[in-house]
Amino acid sequence: MLYRLGRWLAFSLAGILVAAAAAAEPLPIFDTHVHYNRPAWDGLKPDRLKRLVRSAGVTRALVSSTPDDGTLKLHAYDPEMFVPELRPYHGKVNSVNWHAHAETIPYLEARLAKTKYVGIGEFHFYPGREPITPVVRRVVELAVEKGILLHVHSSAEPVRRLFALDERLIILWAHAGMSEPPDVVGPMLDEFPRLFAELSFRAEDITDGLGNMNPHWKALLERHANRFTIGSDTYENERWASFGDLIGAHRHWLDQLPKDAARAIAFDNAVRLFAAR
Questions:
Q1: How many CB atoms lie within 10 A of CB 136?
Q2: Top-level CATH class of 27-274?
Q3: What is the DSSP letter of 59?
Q4: Whole-angstrom Cα Rg for the chain
Q5: Which of 61, 66, 153, 166 sits CB 3.0–4.6 Å from 34 for a disulfide?
Q6: Lowest mean pLDDT, pick from 159-163, 206-210, 217-221
Q7: Pairwise CA distance, residues 255 & 147, whole Å
Q8: What are 16-69's pLDDT values in tens digits?
Q9: What is the mean pLDDT of the chain?
Q10: What is the domain partition of the chain in residue ranges?
Q11: Are 237 and 41 within 8 A, CB to CB?
Q12: Which residues pair with 61 in a beta bridge?
């Protein structure tokens, strides 16, 4: 009897310890907004970058770069960790003129023919510029043909107009519109079931000065927990230098969500989004 009791206590204690270890283990993060641009190449080689990313608890990352060769370097180094998307910026093609430049489409078509990318972007639509050009129409066609998404940095209106071109599109909305408030982001997600939003640059909006979650953002993130992802946006070397802090800022508000919602936003949604692409 005492032997059985001792075994039961041992097994119970082991179960408690395992559960405690699992609870203490930080959420894995799938960072859906990483750039490995040319200025980072010399000082941050792929092996060092991987260690930096892993030290922040990021186990996978969606990468686009200016030029695209940076993305290919990381993907070749670790194709499981670094998931490639194709940015149109190269040479004289940049964030301002890509949507109307004659070199954009030949460049994208040539690269898409050689490498399996999961998306096209991240690319920008700036206020005051017509977003829907012949180049953009072809980009939409390419995305649908290839079954890949568009990673779009814009306010809400260009996203609306892209979906009007083809409702089969899948769009990852960079920074959830950057400055769009919850009462804009929420209705967009309600209206467009193939729209997802990544939250790079939004941690300060999601929390107040004391680190508490904004109640409007909290309600939105819980209501659409299956449509958000995490991002760091390492567009400049200074962002790489503070990478751990960027991810830590997201972890702070993720800890204030229900566990299932936090896990979905931190990792599962991105896995599901890119699994079949």
A1: 23
A2: alpha beta
A3: E
A4: 21
A5: 61
A6: 206-210
A7: 34
A8: 433 433 445 789 999 999 999 999 999 999 999 999 999 999 999 999 999 999
A9: 92
A10: 27-274
A11: no
A12: 31, 82
Nearest to 102 by CA among 135, 67, 137: 135
Q: What is the pLDDT of residues 240-265, one digit of tens each?
A: 999 999 999 999 999 999 999 999 99
Please give the angle made by the CA atoms of 200, 204 and 205, to the nearest 5 degrees.
Answer: 90
Residue with tokens 């969606």: 62
What are the beta bridge partners of residue 60?
30
Joined together, the tokens standing for residue 233 give 């946006």
- One-letter amino acid for residue 29 of the chain: I
Residues in the chain, total: 277
Cβ pair 239, 247 in contact under 8 A: no
Distance, in Å, from the CA atom of 53 to the CA atom of 268, rounded to the nearest integer, reads 18
- 149, 118 in Cβ contact below 8 A? yes
Nearest Cα neighbor of 124 from 148, 158, 101, 91 is: 158
DSSP state of 175: G
Beta strand residue intervals within 67-211, DSSP E:
82-84, 119-124, 149-153, 171-173, 195-198
Tokens standing for residue 109: 């078509």
Hey, what are 234's tokens? 């390492």
What's the pLDDT score for residue 20? 38
Lowest-confidence pick of 11-25, 79-93, 163-177, 201-215: 11-25
Other C-beta atoms closer than 10 Å to the C-beta of 260 total: 12
CA distances (Å), 20 to each of 9, 28, 268, in order?
16, 17, 22
**How far is CA 148 from each of CA 49, 182, 221, 242, 249, rounded to the nearest angstrom?**
26, 27, 25, 30, 29
**pTM for this structure?**
0.91
